[in-house]
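Hey L., structure's done. Input below.
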Amino acid sequence: MRNTYLAVTAALVIAAAVGLAQQAGPYKVLKSEKAGGTGGFDYIYADAAGRRLYIPRSADNNATPPVPARVSIFDLDTLAPVGEIPDTRAAGAAVDVESGHGFATSKPVAMWDTKTEKLIKTIDVQGGPDGILGDAYNHRIYILSHQAPHVTVIDAKSGDILGTLDLGGAPEQAATDGAGHIYIDVSDKANVAVIDSKAMTVTGHYPLGDNISGVAGLAIDAKNHILFAACRGSSPTMVILNANDGKIITTLPLAGSTDGAVFNPATMEAFSSHGNGTMTIIKENSPTSFVVEQNLDTMMGAKTLTLDSKTNHVLTMAAEYAAPPAAAAAPATPPPAPAAGGPPQGQGRGGFGGGRGGRGAMLPGSFTILVVGK
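Output:
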């Protein structure tokens, strides 16, 4: 606990030094639910229509007995656990409301019935599934991979693979305008790829600037055709650009290293979550006017987020970790490389499974879901 406290304090000191410390604003953490459970985690996904929250958890082979990988399912209103998709090692999840089918970026991809929470089938894919997008426009699921093929397109009703796409680099997050266009940030190339979802072709790339690196989050104001590209780099930045032509409108500072972004059309606000325990809220006053409305303290490690469009709440998650173990001699043989489908067992992407990245194991019962709202 002391280690966690020191890390949070250090993060806030750094933020204050660059003028990005928590500031007054309309948002606060409304609820902090100790959901517990063991195993790493990466993306969080809210099915606002079905009132379910999906969180893939990696395996924990150090637990007694060992805990397998699964997709944990919670009631979106109460945050009570309601089920799981077992034996599914994934980073993210998404739901197609019309078909009532859920999908997870496991390898093979898991497809389930959202009413019964029973697995329907698995879908063999190439690459290393990571990010995911469900597009209601033509009911397709986009599986993102840092390895080629970068995008696998799946029919949400049948589960059939419709094709693959090459983005020329590693994708992180995707957004849809609901009118036949998909946008995907290409992290290592500092651009946003544009996809015609009907023709299933890449029609262009929008560069985000020479000083931009590590694009990790992407959100869209579909009505006004505005993209919000959340970037890491030495100076975390939100690049705001026109979705029609890629012209950069403005850039704004973020309070930490981002790993996700969402836009709420009901409030005209974009949100970026950061591993240092902060969240930046950007207000769109008009299609040409944007301001940082608030930098909010959340919880150390709360790096990804999702929007509940019914309540206008933003949800994120994190856990507490023990102090790192004392330094040990280097192993005689290197640890095994990650499997093609994702991070090593027991670890989430970025080391959020514990025991990696200079910290100890996850503290029992500390996994927490946070609800942010006004």
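The chain has one helix and 28 strands. The first strand starts at residue 28 and ends at 34.

-- N.
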